[in-house]
Amino acid sequence: MIQNRFKKVVVGSLLVASSLFGDISSYEFESHSLVGVEGGYSQLGYEYGTRANNTVHNIGISHVGLKIGAETEDFRVFLSGRYFHDSSSVHDYIVTYGGEIQYKFNATKLFNIFMGVNGGVANLKFRSSTETYSRTISSPYFGGDLGLNIHLGKAVDWEFGGRVMSIQADNTRDGKTYHVNQIVSGYTSIILKWQMN
């Protein structure tokens, strides 16, 4: 009796599932592949010194980046890499590798507004004028994105955005600590898109 009931439940479940999934092959959502080139200006916040004599710094750095990804009607996902140039030469390099996932508010056919989260790894090399060696940090970061995406056509978007990447990492040596806080960026991107098969 239990076996018969079990068989009826299994057969009934299969029939319901087959009717529900019957139309999936006919359902297609529009998705695009994306490649973007990004440029912008950022503020890097860091601290350096001892506990008794610690100085807080905010320096301006420019950056370029490359991102590849995909989008549906409501979401975008990117894998990205960025190089930041410190004109003050305090940092030998600042490089980030990561990804972003964003939700799009499709306000009009001309543009959408997006907001999302980002995360990845930041690599920095710092040189103090009072030390004879360099300090390196490789640390995860996380943060948020907000911006505007203007449709220049079916194949090109022009993006304006802001991004915060919180790093919160230390390098301590000889009683002095180099602490990285965050990178706050304003940027623009040209994004090429094409239909995915």
What is the helix fraction of residues, given as a range? 10-25%
Radius of gyration: 24 Å
CATH architectural group: Beta Barrel
Principal-axes shape call: elongated
The strand count comes to 8
CATH topology: Porin
pLDDT averaged over residues: 87
Describe the fold and architecture.
By secondary structure, the protein is mainly β. Helix content is 10%, strand content 69%. Strands 1-2-3-4-5-6-7-8 form an 8-stranded antiparallel beta barrel. Strand 2 and strand 3 form a beta hairpin. 23% of the residues are buried.
Task: Give me the secondary-structure topology.
Layout lengths: L1 H20 L10 E18 L4 E18 L3 E11 L5 E15 L5 E17 L6 E18 L4 E18 L2 E20 L2
Antiparallel strand pairs: 1-2, 1-8, 2-3, 3-4, 4-5, 5-6, 6-7, 7-8
What is this entry, summarized?
By secondary structure, this protein is mostly beta strands. It has a single domain, classed as Porin (Beta Barrel). It contains one helix and eight strands, in the order H-E-E-E-E-E-E-E-E.
Question: Main traits of this protein?
Answer:
69% strand; Porin; 1 helix; 197 residues; elongated; single chain; mainly beta
